[in-house]
Amino acid sequence: MASAIMSEAALYAASPLNADDENAMTWAEAAEICKKAMTDCASNGYKLFTTVPGSANNANLIACTAYDNMFIQKPVFDNSNDPECILGKARVQVWNNNTAPIIAGHTRAGACPSQELVDCYETTDGKRPILGYSDAEHLQPIINPEATLYDEKNPYANRDPRLKATIYYNGAYGHLQESTPNPTIYTGKGAKHEYATNTLKNTRTGYYLHKYFNITSTRVANNDGYLREFRFAELCLNYAEAAFEAYGTGMPDDAYKAINDVRARVKMPSIPKGLDPEELRARIRNERRIEFAFENHRFYDVRRWKILDETAVVTGMIPVDETITEEPILDEDGNPELDDEGNVKTMEVRKCESYQRISVGKSAAVADKFLRLPVPIAEAVNLKSHTGLEFQNPGWGK
């Protein structure tokens, strides 16, 4: 854990937010510390979690890759069930507070993923489908012509598996056995999980959180997953970022390997050498955004990179031009299931012809003062009384 703390502290200390300090750590120093933290932990048995979900304990209902299977595991001190976890935290309660209204007792949708986050997931061939936006409202995406696997009418197909593992989107299965698709998440008008602004239970963005969620949870048995405070993947991406900032595209091979090992876990292609420096920086930062989605990293990353003003706009996506039909529910042999009265059971099936991006909101917290948290006023006053110096961060008053 000391290594993990050193790695994160060094990365933050060398970042643009702190680079103006006369005693600031250099990126080369940070890279050395981050590499040592990663290799020390690796030599003591820490590594990426690579156990794919199986049928035991319905893991294949809950997870689709080793990535999301990891968050179902309860962290234990000897790392016997998760060699990646350096420090685990408490179990979450996603089914009740932070996802779609699937399970009885659900109260609110919670922190709904944004379209900006969804746009960050590459296609399975490693191409960025959305390169940016041609308007300030983010309603006009700039589609990458090289991302030939991306389809605007079917935008969630052929994407990085971490999208499916992290986010419920329109047409996603509530559980992950495709042979048994009920309940399907539909966010169109009139659907159970529809986009709505007049209820806490439904999404404001067209998306719900899937990460950590266990569909076997109930009112009397929360089976959801667990947060990680530190995990080995962070040490890998810390080193890759510090090494790039120190050495540019000529960063050491083991730094490329560190980020590409994280990608390989979900069978994403490696980030190649020879990229333009700004593109490589964008790829490294994007990897952190999707790998650590909803793990409390993004809040600090956008501040230490001093890009808070670039994150103000929030949009969503809703289906339009839907065709709605009732189709029979089939059993494992492909035969229609019958109810107690002998009637064929049916389910609603929605086919979406197109999608529409929507404005959700814009954060006002973009001024430089929001790059740092305020020192609590009582602490600032006490520190000044003892030292005669101001101990408040810029912009927060005295």
Layout of secondary structure:
Layout: H1 2-14, H2 27-43, H3 59-62, H4 66-70, E1 85-91, H5 94-97, H6 115-119, E2 130-133, E3 141-143, H7 161-166, E4 167-168, E5 208-209, E6 226-231, H8 232-247, H9 253-264, H10 277-291, H11 298-304, E7 313-328, E8 346-362, H12 377-387
Antiparallel strand pairs: 1-6, 2-3, 4-5, 7-8
Task: Report how far apart the termini are.
Answer: 35 Å
- Which shape, going by the Cα principal axes? globular
The largest sheet is: 2 strands, antiparallel
Low-confidence stretches: none
**Estimated share of beta-strand residues:** 5-15%
What is the radius of gyration computed over CA atoms, rounded to a whole number of angstroms?
Answer: 23 Å
| pLDDT averaged over residues | 93
Helix content: 25-40%
- Which class of secondary structure composition applies to the elements? alpha+beta
Describe the structure.
With 398 residues, this protein is of the alpha+beta class. 29% of the residues lie in helices and 14% in strands. The chain has twelve helices and eight strands. The strands form four sheets. It has a two-stranded antiparallel ribbon. Strands 2-3 form a two-stranded antiparallel sheet. A two-stranded antiparallel sheet has the order 4-5. The model has no long low-confidence stretch (mean pLDDT 93).
Give a quick precis of the structure.
The chain is α+β, with helices and mostly antiparallel strands.
Keywords:
globular, 8 strands, 398 residues, two-stranded antiparallel sheet, alpha+beta, two-stranded antiparallel ribbon, 12 helices
